[in-house]
Design a protein that fits this description.
single chain, 4 strands
């Protein structure tokens, strides 16, 4: 994983959230989008009108997991599905479902995005769209 760097700015977090929300609006489902700094502390949060209330905490948990491990949460999901992969369920702070992606700028992890509200695959696609806007 990319080493930690300084936290992204509010302007950078806003650009990431804007890109994720734009991707989310292509469908009919409402999402929660969380952007955290490398420590996992929240920088920016959006909950689209109509998003499930539970998506609020889940999006933040996914973002914190991606920041803590500097890895996408899909990795834990993939490992958990393997034979003898249940060990990942015991990892503190590991969220075992797609939708959390580290934000890397200049080869450094500057935060993470977490998305919740739809299927795991949709959450992941929206998070990746947001992460692609990190500059």
């Amino acid at each position: 994983p990319a080493p930690y760097g300084p936290a992204l700015t509010l302007a950078q977090a806003t650009a990431v959230a804007d890109a994720a929300e734009q991707e989310a609006r292509k469908g009919a489902t409402a999402y929660a989008i969380a952007i955290v700094e490398p420590s996992g502390q929240l920088i920016l949060f959006r909950r689209m009108d109509g998003a499930n209330y539970s998506a609020t905490d889940i999006a933040q948990d996914k973002a914190r997991s991606a920041a803590a491990f500097r890895l996408p949460t899909k990795l834990w999901d993939d490992i958990a599905e393997r034979p003898n992969g249940a060990w990942v369920l015991g990892l503190r702070h590991a969220v075992v479902i797609e939708g959390g992606v580290p934000l890397v700028i200049g080869g450094r992890t500057v935060g993470a995005i977490g998305v919740s509200g739809g299927s795991a695959e949709a959450d992941g696609a929206i998070a990746r769209a947001g992460a692609a806007a990190a500059r």
